[in-house]
Amino acid sequence: MGLFRNNTKRMVQEFRDKSEYYSNDLSKEIKESFEDLKSEFDEHHQALPDFLEFISEIKSKLTAMEAKKLEELSYGLSRINRCAKKGVESMRELSLNQRKVTRETLRLYEEFE
After folding, report:
1. For residue 71, what are the contacts with CB-CB under 8 A and spacing of at least 6?
2. CB 95 within 8 A of CB 9
3. Among 16, 59, 68, 97, who pairs with 109 as Cys (CB 3.0-4.6 Å)?
4. What is the DSSP letter of 20?
5. What is the pTM of this model?
6. How far apart, in whole angstroms, are the C-alpha atoms of residue 33 and residue 39?
C-alpha cells in the first residue's frame, strides 16, 4: 500500500512541477507581450490628439467636402485608438488572471499533497 502512495505522490509532484513550469512560462510570455504592447501604445498615444489639434487648425482652410472627409478620418482613428487602448487593458487583465490561475493551481496541488 505504501508503494502505491509513494508512486502517487511522485506523479502528483511531477504534474505539479510541469504545471508550474508551463504556467510560469506562459505568464512570462503574457507579461512580456503586455509590456511591449503598453510601451508601443504609450509611445504613440499622443499622435491622435496631435492630429485632432492639427485638423482644428486647418479646418477653416478646407472645403466643406474636405473637412467632412477629414472628420470621418479622425473618427476612424479615434475608434482605432480606443481599440488599441482596450487591447492594452485586455492584455493587462490576461496577465493578472494568468498569475491568479497559476497561484490557485499551485495551491490546489499543495492541498492534494
Report:
1. 55
2. no
3. 16
4. H
5. 0.73
6. 10
- Rounded CA separation 44/113 (Å): 49
Phi, psi dihedral angles at 63 (to 5 degrees):
-75, 165
Residues 60-85 have pLDDT tens digits of 999 999 999 999 999 999 999 999 99
Cα–Cα distance measured from residue 104 to residue 59, given in angstroms and rounded to the nearest whole number: 56
How confident is the prediction for the chain on average, in pLDDT?
Answer: 88
Question: Side chain identity at 36, as an amino acid letter?
Answer: D
| pLDDT at residue number 113 | 67
70-103 per-residue burial string, b: 16 or more CB within 10 A, e: under 16: beeebeeeeeebeebeeebeebbeebeebbeebe
Taking the C-alpha atoms of residue 73 and residue 59, their distance in angstroms, rounded to an integer, is: 13
Q: Which residue has the cell 487593458?
A: 89
